[in-house]
Amino acid sequence: MTNNTNGFSTDIRVNGEKLDCVNRFKYLGAIIADEGSKPEILARIAQATAALAKLKTIWNDRNIALSSKIRLMRSLVMSIFMYACESWTLTADTERRIQAMEMRCLRKLLGITYRDHISNEEVRNRTRQAIGPHEDLLTTVKRRKFKWYGHITRSSGLGKTILQGTVQGGRRRGRQKKRWDENIPEWTA
Q1: pLDDT tens across 91-104, in order?
Q2: Domain boundaries, given as residue ranges, for the chain
Q3: pLDDT tens digits, residue range 140-165?
Q4: How many CA atoms does the CB half-sphere of 52 hold within 13 Å?
Q5: Confidence class for position 9, pLDDT limits 50, 70, 90
Q6: How many alpha carbons lie under 13 Å from residue 144 in its C-beta half-sphere?
Q7: Backbone angles phi, psi at 82, to 5 degrees
Q8: How confident is the model at residue 183, as a pLDDT?
Q9: Is the dihedral of CA 131, 136, 139, 141 positive or negative?
Q10: CB contact burial 9-26 (16+ within 10 A = b; e otherwise)
């Protein structure tokens, strides 16, 4: 994969065989794309939604307490979603999608459809009554990113060099793509 705005392709050969130039690939279960974190976040949302759908019999079972269902959802569904979330660059759009996915999951657990006209705040209140105060999904993603940022800045390895390093040249005109490290000062201000 090359990261170039001019779109040139490089001829790279290994053992005489030319490698294909791609704009995205999957590595260790995560999508690496030239357009940033959005494809990975959308794929994680889809995988978590599929996992939620597979557990439909548990969500519809009236003999299982709501607090147990929520704990199961957080361990079985949200863990799939949050895989490698420390590397995501969050924009306002992706933050909104994360919150919407969490609400969709909670509504499924509580048996609330959108036709019931129950607000998100009421869904959060019902969840809070069932399990007590808890951290919402977006806050968990941000906390994990903060933790990773602290780990990298305290280390002395390649990660710190990459995070604090600069590249020669200037940025192109127009609105710039959001970078990974720009989230940190936004959230601490």
Answers
A1: 999 999 999 999 99
A2: 36-161+178-188
A3: 999 999 999 999 889 888 888 877 77
A4: 24
A5: low
A6: 18
A7: -85, 5
A8: 87
A9: positive
A10: eeeeeeeeeeeeeeeeee
Q: What is the largest CA-CA distance in the chain?
A: 64
| End-to-end CA separation in angstroms for the chain | 35
Q: What angle do CA 81, 68, 130 make, to 5 degrees?
A: 100
- Produce one character per residue of 29-64: b if its CB has 16 or more CB atoms within 10 Å, e if not: ebbbbeebbbebbeebbeebbebbeebeeebeeeee
Rounded Cα distance between 73 and 48, Å, is: 10
Rounded Cα distance, 140 and 98, in Å:
11
Residues 74-122 have pLDDT tens digits of 899 999 999 989 989 999 999 999 999 999 999 998 888 889 999 999 9
Tokens of 129: 């009554």
Q: Average per-residue pLDDT in the chain? A: 86
Contact 70, 109 (CB under 8 A): yes
45: three-class secondary structure by DSSP: helix
